[in-house]
Write a structure and sequence with these properties.
Oligomer: heterodimer
Shape of chain B: flat
CATH topology of one domain in chain B: MetI-like fold
Strand content of chain A: under 5%
Distance between the termini of chain B: 65 Å
Number of helices of chain A: 12
Number of helices of chain B: 12
Helix content of chain A: over 70%
CATH class of one domain in chain B: Mainly Alpha
Order of helices and strands of chain A: HHHHHHHHHHHH
Low-confidence stretches of chain A: 305-309
Number of strands of chain A: 0
CATH architecture of one domain in chain A: Orthogonal Bundle
Helix content of chain B: 55-70%
Radius of gyration of chain B: 28 Å
Number of strands of chain B: 2
Largest sheet of chain B: 2 strands, antiparallel
CATH superfamily of one domain in chain A: MetI-like
Mean pLDDT of chain A: 81
Strand order of the largest sheet of chain B: 1-2
Largest interface: A-B, 43 and 37 residues
Largest sheet of chain A: none
Low-confidence stretches of chain B: none
Amino acid sequence: MVKYLAKRISFLVLTLFLVASITFFLMKLMPGTPFSNQAKLSPEQLDILNKQYGLDKPVFIQYLSYLWNMVQGNLGTSFQFNNQAVTSIILERMGPSLQLGSQAMLFGSFFGIILGAIAAIKKNTWVDSVATFFSILGISIPSFVLAVLLQYFLAFKLNLFPVALWDGWNSSILPSLALAVAPLANVARFMRTEMVDVLSSDYITLSKSKGNSKWQTVAKHALRNSLIPAVTIIGPMTVNLMTGSLVVENIFTVPGIGEQFVKSIMTNDYPTIMGLTIFYSFLLTVVILIVDILYGIIDPRIRLNEGGK
Amino acid sequence: MEISKDKFKLAKKDTHLEQEKISTPSLTFFQDAVRRLKKNKVAMFALGLLVLIIALAVTAPIISPQDPNAQNIKYANLPPKIGSGNIPGFSGELTSQSGAKYDAYAGLPSDKTFILGTDYLGRDLLSRVLHGTRLSLLIALLATLVDLLIGVPYGIVSGWKGGVLDTVMQRIIEVISSVPTLVVVVLMLLVLKPGLLSIVLAISFTGWVTMARLVRAQTLQLKELEFVMAAQTLGESSFKIAMKHLIPNLSSVIIIQTMFTIPTAIFFEAFLSFIGIGMPAPNASLGTLLSDGQKAFRFFPYQMWIPAIVLSVIMIAANLLGDGLRDAFDPKSE
């Protein structure tokens, strides 16, 4: 276990190092400077700005100091947004994103499990067909298309929610809903497959022959055993949520990390782009590592040293 | 000892053999898969829909009523109208802020109608949607092709050679796949000039990894099988074994994965264009059309509807066909 953990963590560090390096050099190749969309600056003023941000030093020195600062948790200061530290931008904007993400995840998982379980129990009936149809819809339709449709119908036409405003829980419902549909559909699909498998196992037959009712059997045995493998889709689900949040936050003007990322891209704000890239990669690799470890603990049949999955 | 001939008699023709005879022609794996696919009504419907959409996209330059980028401010923001406007939804009417309906075509020459309306620059939306679909599908096709050209050989070499090479190749894959696709795609597009090829490159930069993984896993199983050993014993070169024995046996994995790559590529193109780093203006793609439509949906909702529906239909059809192909090629999965 310790050996496995050490291996995985060293790999995680290597990945992050590579991501940071690649991001850094790609940013150096980018066209445009951070000061190009500000009012005309004299060469002297540009020199001062370049010096202040360390842009006058050789690229390699900039690279080393960037890495060194990163290790210490300092991702530099933003070229835009009043020289704020990138780390503080991330911390400040994490709240709304985290809220949307967890709401979407909870909502999606809960209803996904129910939908999948019902589809499996009612296998090959019209209930199953309807559930399958909806999960295909949910998997296929991109979250931003859904977000636009929700915004049009529920916010603009029916006036149930604010169109694009971040003010209290009410305004988080629509973006969470737009993000929740894909996890819901994926969980439902996964759950159905697992549950169909589990329902044909011997212990289900045993439970039935002991005289337990159908629903008792499902609740006590089938549901629990189908849920274990579902842990593995938490990783891909997180990736999906992250991708979706970029556009969904923009559509609903949520002051989250996704919205910040797009804004930084539009303004050539290198340090923020780099910081957010590394942050996203870090989040993802850590989530996947935790999921792998969790899975090994929940299901002892999985041996961690064999790749974790 | 002698046995007289009359002790023997002719055995009756065995009717049993008749019963055992296989009357239908034996099917190859592919024929069998196609037969199973044909039975799947949903998948066939999705296939039909996709064929129709592809046909419309391919012939877009011919069937479009006008140049997708031709602007005419006089005809800006006109809603869909067919003929004299008797068909519901295509009446040429708009709802103003106060809720009253008015004829948006009033004061314009009566012979000029737009089936799907026009955008804020007076560009014909039907032409733009046709060309946009064409562009999105082209990007998906190219990205899938790159996936195939890199992923399949990579997977075969990694699985076939094994040893240190395999380990190194797998580590590379692990690093690439641990970076979120989204981040890679966005970074690549920032560095490359925006345009069709950059989008294809950005999407396939991480896209081939899944294909390579699946192909490698399958190759590992295949290389233990007898027919591969037989080919090796006969002195076939590795390249020939790969072409003649591995690829045909990998084809089902490859076909299924390809079918799921296409919607992913379409999604990323639309996604990138939506946040403004995809196809540059004035090019129409499904993503840019949806993004424009979203900005205008308060007063001109039809501009959002059309690309949203087209994009969703393509995604749903591609996923349904992918599911159908998986069931057809891998009967164990059902």
